[in-house]
Structures are given as structure tokens and as C-alpha cells.
Amino acid sequence: MHKPGEIRVLALGIVKNGERVFLSQGYDPGKQQTFYRAMGGGVDFGETSREALQREFYEEIQAEITNIRYLDCNESLFTYNDKPGHEILFVYECDFVDPKFYQIDTLDFKEGKRKKTALWVECDRFKTGELKLVPEQFLNYL
């Protein structure tokens, strides 16, 4: 995790397949709410956001990505587990190199010590409000 009061810089990748998007599922204990976020993670000192995106996909789910296209940079102020957070998000669209990733439904992985799940979700489930996508401005990329 990060230190309180720290602004985190993240690189996140949106992988789509038709009307589905590949996301990481999370849970906010403070709000008692499940949410979904694009895969990726922190940018380390000395690496570009694009390099961080490739590294994070490989570290988390052993996936290589290709056709990496920069979309936007967003600032996100939020509350998670009753604590304020602040992130700068470099947003990319990308594809998996290995087609097997388009065939799976869910994939369990570890992020540090935390167990997480990545899965394909129909985009309409976010547009109707049935499921929560964070940050909310990511709805524009679906």
C-alpha cells in the first residue's frame, strides 16, 4: 500500500473484447461495497507509465500486452476503507498477446499479500449502474 497523504501515480490498462472489459475486482470494507478497476499498478521511479503497465500485467497475471495506446491522464480523489486517497492515472487501451486470456472467465492472482480476482465483465453492467466501476470517469472508455 502507500503512505497516508501520498499521491500515487498509476498506469492502468483497459482490455476490451467486444462488449466485455477485463477488470480487477475489489472490495471496500468501509463502504461494504464491491467495485471494479482496470488492471495495472504503480509507476516506479525511473520507469515510464507504459513500462509500468507492461510490468504490472506481467507481475500480476503473467500476461504480455500489445497494441498499447495512450488514452488519457486522470486525477482521482476518493475514499477507500474510510481513508482518503489521491491518484494520478495514466490510462491506456491494450490487448493481450496470448489469446488464452480472452477465453477465461475469471483469474485469481496476488497483488502483494492480497488475493484478487480479474474477470471479464459486460460493459452494460456498469452503464446501467448494476456494478460500480472506479474511478467513475472510466465509464467514458467503455
Describe the structure.
It is a single chain. Strand 4 and strand 5 (83-96) form a beta hairpin. The protein is built from two helices and seven strands; from the N terminus they run βββαββββα. Strands 1, 2, 3, 4, 5, 6 and 7 form a seven-stranded mixed β-sheet that branches. The chain has helices at 49-61, 124-127, and strands at 8-17, 20-28, 33-42, 65-80, 83-96, 106-111, 114-122. The longest helix is centred in the middle third of the chain and has 13 residues, at 49-61. With 142 residues, it is mostly beta strands. Its cofactor is Mg(2+). Keywords: Hydrolase. Pfam families: NUDIX. One of its GO terms (molecular function) is hydrolase activity.
Count of alpha and pi helical runs: 2
Q: Any idea what the radius of gyration is?
A: 14 Å
Shape: globular
Largest sheet: 7 strands, mixed
What's the short version?
It contains two helices and seven strands. With 142 residues, it is mostly beta strands. It is globular, with a radius of gyration of 14 Å.
Question: Would you spell out the secondary-structure blueprint of this structure?
Answer:
Elements: E1 8-17, E2 20-28, E3 33-42, H1 49-61, E4 65-80, E5 83-96, E6 106-111, E7 114-122, H2 124-127
Parallel strand pairs: 1-5
Antiparallel strand pairs: 1-2, 1-3, 2-3, 2-7, 4-5, 6-7
Keyphrases for this structure?
seven-stranded mixed sheet, mainly beta, 142 residues
